[in-house]
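Title: Prediction job returns without error message
Component: structure pipeline
Severity: low
Priority: P3
Assignee: unassigned

Description:
Job completed but the reporter wants confirmation the result is attached to the right record. Sequence as submitted:
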Amino acid sequence: MKPVFKTTGKKDPVKEFSASFKAGDFIFRQGDLGSEMYIVLEGEVHLVKKLRGESLVLSRLEKGDFFGEMAVIESASRTSDALAHTAVRLLSINAARFDDMLRKNPEIALRMIRKYAMRLQEANALLETLAGPEVDPDSSLSKAPPALSPEAPFPEPEPARSKVQRLVDNATGRAFFFGRTDEATIGRADPVTGILPDIDLSSVDIDRSVSRRHAKILRRDGMYMILEEVGTINGTYVNDQRIPTGQPVPINNGDRLRVGLINMKVLFES
């Protein structure tokens, strides 16, 4: 007897609200009115701005990136062209679905906040450049610095750290160093916000299994720990054990670390 398959009658929201475009197609154009934002499911999308008759690529978006959100938040017209650089498949999201997604996935809201914080910093930098530096004529900065005395010692250089802490990708042997700070973010470069993690695994994450902000390496009282960020999809494992989100877990020399599908080794060497 052949098996009988039953369907629940429920629709797949990804299939129901997805749209496909061929390479070279415009998803929308600068100045268009819109009521939807998009998430890239497959392919690569370029955001292109027309300035003085020339086209400037602002962002190159890949799987998991979003764009066009101002049409949902403020009902604003499109500020750039969205061009399918390759064949793409997109998830279309209107205001109602957007609100539902924010409730279920707080990482979306966090990425948007970071994006707008970056824009504000860029705007402030531009204003400072246009206004020029403010100089107080009575300030010591406006006066020539005193000459150094021949007997004055040169500043002592910062002592080198006694250890080199790094993650080593098992597949390629590539090393990713923690750096000199007490916190180092692990993830993939985010073209939407322009933010780069301290440990960028984009070059070895062929399957894009690592979230944009996946985890953090923390240093506390000479010890190192790893903390998985909220909204991470594919998990973080220490010695084959899944770690809980938001809870620091100690890591030691020689530990096995898996971030998404990337298998690495923790190395502390003198």
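Comment from assignee: result matches the submitted record. The first strand starts at residue 18 and ends at 21.
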